[in-house]
Design a protein that fits this description.
The complex is a heterodimer of chains A (268) and B (348). Chain A has 268 residues and is of the alpha/beta class. Chain A is built from nine helices and twelve strands. Chain B has a two-stranded antiparallel ribbon. The chains are: A alpha/beta (268), B mainly alpha (348).
């Protein structure tokens, strides 16, 4: 079946298991958010699903095939990864950076590649940056360009059955840009792609994700629809702060309870 | 501006800059071939070269001019061009692999390994059964390859080359090479010391057609094969993990770069001694001139490195004629100010 999934995935860093027996599944058309406190294993999970890290046990499957059985290039045609803190050793202009996303498809710079670059820059809200040198950009601008590069890789012609892995794509973005980036991920899913997205802001997960995977201490604590997973009790336990769910304007919002409202609260 | 227009403009820019570097190399060859104890007019040089490929020109070559050109000048000019191209391209490959514009083939230990091999021949008489013109380049090449292989072995863990460890292993091996050279300098007699010093500073004085032919495969192969690494190295600029995400077989690229650097620098040092600075600064200059894409940096470095060494060697053999200044000193004296000027021009 079509999915990017981990089955009973355990990943070690050195001798330590940083991910234990985690099951995650992203299907085409879905946005799955991975949330959890710092050190919960979110980026490790993303790295394992990207094929960077080898499972100590369990498996990562792309449409039923183990990642290890695919060539780097075959894998690159079907999934793109956007990590945090993109840096560049040499001053390439933005359009060239995005064109690198076309590398697994040949990337010789033909008309189809150019069209894909234009579309990706537009979708990521970075069209105005095309001619600028990448190292001169702000953190937020770099993040948009990195998103554009990932989009150019998997959203050239047919996004259907391709996957986008995003590690905190909104970390350096302002309110409007964060909304635009996640709306872009939703549009990719609507076009038939699958998205797995590590998020820190739980309210972004509530608003944009079809499913949420909550990690804590390297284990999957809960998974399912955002409304079912993001509950005050479990979040308070996992994050170690008193959490409240507010309902307003027809939506649900996660917030830390003001001091004095909850018992057993954690300082700071 | 659409991506298509932007890429078209960049491509035009790349081609004009490569064209300019090609013209610079052509001029350097013509002037260098005409420069020396017997001056030969540029038109005569062009006439002789055209005649060799079957074109007739109004510029005739006198027999003595032809003899000097074909027996003395041209082998030296060709060797300078090949060595310059190989040193500059391997420098560009190293900078791409290490993602650092200050990287240099010397970092992986190849140059000091080659120098140590050659010094052993000069001072200790290693391989004395062979003629010096064979033993010296052979020992230099083997020393360079041996040190590079050692550095690479130290840096491989679980089938993957750790680039930071490769760098540190290179530093360690360079220290070994330096200590070995120091020891050999200490035990050498005066004549050996002079030979050693001259060889360490680099010279193209040994250029003959057989020497050119022997070194050519090792010098040309890295320059040609580098073309296949241009796009993977562009992707590596994003980072090794990102390049892997783009489907680049990163480990294969790393091994290919190390192999080409060992081959190119090993062959260059074997025929000319150590000529510093070309591998470090030529790619930087080309990047400032034409941009960072390896599709232009690699061929541009080949042309610029060849032009630089051809010009530097012409200066080396004429400024103090009939004596020769070591060419490595000249490359540094020509290249360093040019590089600083480029940096200065970029401040605004």
């Amino acid at each position: 079946m079509s999915a990017l999934e981990s089955r009973c995935l355990t990943v070690h860093r050195g001798d330590r298991a940083v991910l234990r027996e985690v099951d995650v599944r992203v299907r085409p058309g879905q946005v799955v958010a991975v949330v959890g406190p710092n050190g919960a294993g979110k980026s490790t999970l993303l790295g394992a699903l990207a094929g960077d890290l080898r499972p100590a046990s369990g498996a990562v499957l792309l449409d039923g095939e183990p990642l290890g059985s695919l060539s780097p290039r075959a894998l690159a045609r079907r999934r793109a990864v956007m990590r945090q803190d993109a840096t560049l050793a040499f001053p390439f202009p933005v359009a060239e950076v995005v064109l690198m996303g076309r590398l697994p498809h040949g990337g010789r710079g033909n008309a189809a590649d150019h069209a894909a670059v234009d579309a990706a820059l537009r979708r990521a809200g970075a069209a105005h940056l095309a001619a600028r040198p990448f190292p001169g950009l702000s953190g937020g601008e770099r993040q948009r360009v990195s998103l554009a590069r990932a989009l150019a890789q998997v959203w050239g012609d047919a996004p259907a059955g391709r996957y986008l892995l995003l590690d905190e794509p909104t970390a350096a973005l302002d309110l409007g840009a964060a909304h635009a980036a996640l709306a872009c991920a939703r549009a990719f899913a609507a076009a038939g792609g699958g998205v797995l997205c590590v998020l820190h802001d739980l309210n972004e997960a509530v608003r944009y994700a079809d499913e949420v995977v909550l990690l804590g201490g390297g284990r999957r604590v809960a998974a399912g629809r955002p409304g079912a997973v993001l509950r005050a009790g479990v979040l308070s336990t996992v994050y170690g702060v008193p959490v409240e769910i507010l309902e307003a304007a027809g939506g649900r919002f996660v917030t830390v309870a003001p001091a004095g409202r909850a018992e057993g609260e954690v300082e700071r | 501006m659409t991506a298509a227009a932007l890429f078209a403009a960049r491509r035009r820019r790349h081609l004009t800059r490569l064209g300019a570097l090609g013209v610079a190399l052509g001029l350097a060859v013509i002037v260098a071939a005409g420069t020396g104890a017997m001056r030969i007019a540029p038109s005569t040089v062009v006439g002789a070269l055209a005649e060799a490929i079957g074109l007739s020109t109004p510029w005739a070559t006198a027999p003595d001019e032809a003899a000097v050109l074909w027996a003395i000048r041209l082998p030296r000019v060709v060797l300078a061009a090949l060595v310059g191209a190989a040193l500059a391209v391997t420098g560009a490959l190293c900078q791409g692999l290490f993602r650092n514009p200050l990287a240099d083939p010397g970092l992986v230990g190849v140059a000091s390994g080659a120098a140590l091999g050659a010094s052993a021949v000069i001072v200790l008489g290693v391989g004395a059964a062979l003629p010096l013109t064979v033993a010296l380049p052979a020992a230099a090449f083997l020393g360079g390859v041996l040190f590079t292989v050692l550095a690479h072995r130290v840096a491989v863990r679980g089938g993957r080359t750790d680039v930071a460890t490769l760098l540190l292993a290179g530093i360690g091996l360079n220290a070994v090479g330096f200590a070995g050279l120091g020891l050999l300098t200490f035990v050498a007699d005066d004549a050996q010391l002079r030979g050693l010093t001259f060889w360490l500073l680099g010279s193209l004085g040994g250029a003959t057609w057989p020497a050119v032919a022997a070194a050519a495969p090792g010098l040309v192969l890295p320059v040609v094969l580098a073309a296949w690494l241009a796009r993977p190295l562009d992707a590596l600029v994003l980072g090794e993990t990102e390049a892997a995400h783009l489907g680049v077989p990163v480990e294969r690229v790393r091994r290919a770069v190390v192999a080409l650097v060992a081959l190119g620098v090993g062959a260059a040092v074997a025929v000319t001694g150590t000529i510093g600075f070309v591998g470090l600064v030529v790619p930087q200059g080309v990047r400032l001139l034409a941009g960072p894409d390896h599709r232009v940096t690699l061929p541009g470095s080949a042309l610029a490195g060849a032009a630089l060494l051809v010009g530097a060697d012409a200066v080396a053999r004429t400024v103090a004629a009939p004596a020769e200044v070591p060419v490595g000193v000249v490359t540094t004296l020509i290249g360093a100010p040019a590089f600083l000027t480029l940096l200065w021009g970029r401040r605004s």
